[in-house]
Amino acid sequence: MKIIGYLLEKEFIQIFRNKAMLPIIFVMPIVQLLVLSFAATYELKEVDFALVDMDQSSLSRELTAKFQSTGYFNLTEVIFDEKQAQKMMNAGDISMIMYLPSGLETDFSSGKPASIQLSIDAVDGTQAGLIQSYSTSIINDYNQDKFANLQIDVWPPVVNKAKSINIIPQNWYNPDLDYLTFMVPGILVVLVSMIGLFLSGMNIVREQEIGTIEQLNVTPIRKSHFMIGKLVPFWIIGMFDLIIGLALARYGFNIPFLGSLTIILIVAGIYLVVVQALGLLISTITNTQQQAMFIAWFLAVIFILLGGLFTPIESMPAWSQQITLANPVAYFIKIMRMVLLKGAGWKEIQMMVAALSGMGILLMMVSINRYKKTTG
Amino acid sequence: MNTFKGFVIKEFKQIYRDKRTLVVLFGMPVIMMILFGFAIRNEINDAQIGILDFSKDQVTRSVIQKLSNSESFKVTAYLSGYDEVEEIFRAGEIKEIVVFEQQFEKKLTTGGIANIQIITDATDPNLANLVQAYTSNIVRDYVNELNAESGFVTNQAGLQPEIRMMYNPELRSVNLFVPGLIAVILMLVSALMTSISITREKEMGNMEILLVSPLKPHHIIIGKVLPYMVLSIVNVFTILVLAEFIFNVPFKGSYLLFFFEAGLFILAALALGVFISSVANNQQTAMMVSLAGLLLPTVLLSGFIFPVASMPMPLQWLSHIIPAKWFLIIVRGIMLKGSDLILMWKETLILALMTLGFIGMSLKKFKVRLQ
């Protein structure tokens, strides 16, 4: 016990002496939480569009006014040359071209189908999908308004006889569909993972690379003592960062904390062990910090991309949904969201916690086994 | 010149001897391409939904049939009352409950209108939106079928939007991700690896030996940087080949322009790597600075995954100083829109100025003396 105490003391002194690391450990997570949470959004802001108006009618004026009044669209240019508009889109100045053919108003008021053309810059498919659905609903609204006002007998056409099914949507837990509420718990997981995976793994390789590991190896310190001495400091730092992050999420972002904080902290403790064991395993199979870093980063990218942070796991094909069963990041992100946002308790998350613990024990055993006190 | 050649050869040997890192270096673009191409999507695939059917008649059965036949959904639970919804959502597997009101069929046939309630688990707002939209589409299709059977044609009057999706008609996410992936991998290999490899010499004490050798400081930098430059270029090729032949991502513009711009970006990244290495004293610091200061912004603030236009203003300003943002605009333009230098001169100029700035900064900071 005494030996572990000294080892811990040594590690902490080493960490706190490194002035460049301190801001990275303590300030970076906060900055990142702030930046990432606001950056990671798919919401649609103002879309710049150009109008090619061949009709020059009151209808075209009304329609563009209606588009602009929603706040989602911003008319930047009125031109009469479709090619010119196309060029502007190529240059990336506008994201949509609205083409109103001549005779539009005549067709419209005589009850004929009047088609208008919307060309959307679809390089970003998600954005294009949003632009499409917003503009379609604006046009539908316009149709309905107009026909109601003009009392033309064509809209709604035969609705009295046709059947229709009404859809009443209801969104639980996040009725405003606020993206921040969803992202913040997930980003917390990423920050904690980075500390656990990178720092503890790198630390041992560093001793190897500099050669000080041999000095430690010839001392009577046991293998397990050495491991504990290396893992505990970063475990504490990780938990500390998580608590700061949680406080920021609660009071800065007003994320609802429906579930129990104790559960979150216990799971986080287990999760950190899993991640650290993984870092340890990496350190036993690598010789230089560069190698360790690179492999850790590689794994982190895969875990995070397949962890359901940015794109839902439900969107993945079956084979990669299977892979996520072995992904600790996916479990912790899911637990965080379930507990914080839905108030889930032990009953709902026990299987996932069991899976995490299993991974932790397995990884820890493998990596302690692989670590040798002899060199060469 | 001979000493310089020797030094470069040494650097190459040192990197290419390290088989493990090489495997990761060359495997990474491949795996990332496959992940982005196949696994990272914004469509829905086999989302689990539950049914709460108060009516249990012919019509509701066929709507449920339609839902479970679609590739998007898997009906995995049948509820018997509203009180079960909470419990099911908490368990977390089921994302949506479709509720049919009582006497659904009767209301539909006699009154012509019936109600379906869609309750979504909106913890993930995007997913909730998608699931809801998919369900509405399926129900709408079903109603149209019903009406067509009984002889009603849907009306065609009014404004009909004709929508053309430019550059990427199938809205494939791979097309969007490839340019971003190139930027991330270039940052990783050029900036991160370079910064670590130079700090390594410092940490191990070899820097002293290099500095007292007849090599000039700029020789040391160039020698350190060259192997990673070669690696970066190989990686760019790998991604392009995969994109072209496996994912059929279009390449409309000129390859020459593309490689010129990629070269600019690689230089910028290398300069940043050198700069970080001259500030950091050990590999851990170098690594954390490059991770937090370069890679994360490249992934998150460049428009790689999340559109810059959606971000709040301060972050949009911040994104201007991230080289990857300009590189992404250029590469997306070249690959998907076929843009040329005349259209891209502004972005290219910004990127070039940044590159020059970074090179200047790192040359100024690179110390010839140890403390």
Query: What string, H for helix and E for strand, traces the elements of chain B in order?
Result: HHEHEHEHEHEHHHHHHHH
Overall mean pLDDT of chain A stands at 81
How many E-type strands of chain A?
5
Principal-axis shape of chain B equals elongated
Distance from N terminus to C terminus of chain B (CA atoms, Å) equals: 28 Å
Strands of the widest sheet of chain A, in order across it, are: 2-1-3-4
Unreliable runs of chain B? none
Helix content, binned percent of chain A:
55-70%
Percent of residues in beta strands of chain B: 5-15%
In the predicted model, the low-confidence regions of chain A spanning at least 5 consecutive residues are 151-160
Beginning-to-end CA distance, first to last residue of chain A? 29 Å
β-strand percent of chain A reads 5-15%
Determine Rg of chain A (CA atoms, Å).
29 Å
Major sheet details of chain B:
4 strands, mixed
Instruction: Name the chain pair with the biggest interface and residue counts per chain.
Output: A-B, 119 and 121 residues
- Pattern of helices and strands of chain A: HHHEHEHEHEHEHHHHHHHH
Structural classification of chain A: alpha/beta
Shape, per Cα inertia axes of chain A: elongated
